[in-house]
Amino acid sequence: MTKTPMPSATAPDTKIYDRRESRVRSYSRAMPRQFGKAQGPWLHDNEGGRYLDFLSGCSSLNYGHNHPVLKAALMDYIANDGVTHALDLHTDAKAAFLRTFEDVILEPRGLDYRAMFTGPTGTNAVEAAIKLARKVTGRELVVAFTNGFHGMTLGALACTGNAGKRGGAGVPLSHVSHEPFDGYYGSEVDTADLLEQRLSDPSSGLDAPAAFLVETVQGEGGLNAASPAWLRRIAALAKKHGALMIVDDIQAGCGRTGGFFSFENMGFTPDIVTLAKSLSGMGLPFALTLMRPDLDVWSPGEHNGTFRGNNHAFVTATAALREFWADPAFIDAVARRGGILERRLERMAERHGLTTRGRGMMRGINVGSGEVASQITSACFEEGLIIETSGAHDEIVKVLAPLTIEDAVLEAGLDILEEAVAAAIAPVERALPKIGVAA
């Protein structure tokens, strides 16, 4: 069993990328290697290097790269000339997915949702969700939350807090109010109370909302995890004021925070849920907007897209549901690995006076600044560990290891992270003034 990375020393020839690919590329700048093969938690470059992947396609690869069960299902489907593209026609692959999703995910959780197959990415699912909420309620305003991230198309981007992302829009981003997320003003201020006061005051300037759009754990915004009590308050406020509760589970769902949905066992049921990223199980584009049946007021073709419903993704998603989510042992294993990650990050944080963020297998450590976090991720890459940052100032080093990673490999990657944190934080600690020591 391979447990340790083996990074290569040689960067690739990037002339073709420099000549033809847009400057907008980002990950390749921080991780300058050319990858040609991937399996499980490992990425291999064209110089023979082996890298441990704690990025997992920003949580699009919760079951690792090229899981053999999912790969076999897809290869069999293609070999038998299964339908690839079908718009929204009925197909065997779609029927199998819907039945499996109903049997394995919805019915055991007591959920009743209609499934809307949107365009292939998460932002498409969010666009459909907010568009539906406006159609159902006849209102325009969406209440989103500070540090939220919901996508890069204009409607989803309007609901996103990050100034750098918003700045690329080129047009006003309107019809959204950004209210404080749980803990935004510290533990002493209940931001649900503040929102209730604003909604109840006819002179607050806050229009009646069509929807509240919230992540239970903010993936790009710093791994801020809302408490179940706060989320229940938000859901109750939505209902009281005639708005719909939309949970964006694009990054936090599909097991990343424990259950298949991030809101499980929290005492509320969203009106609409958005899913994408690891929904296909294998990194194939697949996004879904789930809605209460009574909210399904669309006219045929009123919201569509050429690539709504990827049959190859239906196949791998169905295989993933059967392979992982039909077996309670998988959920137990994810919880165990989440415990390992929590303990290791807490140990690092305690050693250096830092704090941790997140929930389940969606956790990180707050190192105080983007500069320090960048030093840490760069040092990790030099040792063969791929890992990224999160947060308003990129100050959170964020761990998104595959949910299926072997415990020993997870520990080995965390050893690399622990050493990198210590190396980056130690100079800062030495530079701090010594209290009570005469000059």
- How are the strands ordered across the major sheet? 4-10-9-8-7-5-6
How would a textbook summarize the main sheet? 7 strands, mixed
CATH topology of the largest domain: Aspartate Aminotransferase, domain 2
Which shape, going by the Cα principal axes?
globular
What class, by secondary structure content?
alpha/beta
Q: What is the count of β-strands?
A: 15
Uncertain stretches: none
Give the end-to-end Cα distance, rounded to a whole number of Å. Answer: 54 Å
Order of helices and strands: HHEEEHHHEHEHHEHEHEEEHHEEHEEEH
Radius of gyration: 22 Å
Considering DSSP H and I runs of 4 or more, what fraction of the residues is helical? Answer: 25-40%
- Give the total of domains: 2
The CATH homologous superfamily of the largest domain is termed: Type I PLP-dependent aspartate aminotransferase-like (Major domain)
| Whole-number mean pLDDT | 96
Q: Architecture of the largest domain, according to CATH?
A: 3-Layer(aba) Sandwich
What percentage of amino acids are in beta strands? 5-15%
Supply the number of helical segments: 14
CATH class of the largest domain: Alpha Beta
